[in-house]
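tool=predict chain=A
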Amino acid sequence: MKNKSLILIIVSIFVAAMFGMAVAGMHGGDGKGCKYCGMDLEKFANTAMMIKYDDGSMSETCSLHCAAIDLAVHIGSAPESIMVGDYLSKKKIDAEKAYWVIDSNNPGVMTSRAKWAFDDKGKAANFIDTNCAGAGKLVGFEEALKAAYEDMYADTQMIRKKRKMMHMKGM
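tool=predict ok
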């Protein structure tokens, strides 16, 4: 059963990646949008991520959700650095040293279970106390990334449903 779930997650990651590349292509590849979903990187600077790989390539994404896709697609390259926007200041910080908040009560960027990065543990704890209604958890990068992979299937379905509704409304 675990193997079937793992296979389903992996397949959904690659389907989401292919879908995202098609969407990003529709935005003209102007470099201002996420390469997977097309979302504006400046508008989502508080969650945007930048990954530099050991082969010299670099990827910019709008969120941990899309960064997880990128890491899966580039399985043959090791990340040299992973930067993320601090939730409060929007400044890029080291994702592996950041204090991550998983917020099960509020949606995030491209996900129904938010994952926010903070440069300061006290600020992250304060955010949990004031915004998460008892459903916030302070974690490290590895646990936040694992949560992104665990959420991938449901998040991909949610995104497809939202895009279908937008398309039906003519947006």
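The chain has one domain: 2-163. Confidence is low (pLDDT under 50) at residues 14-29.
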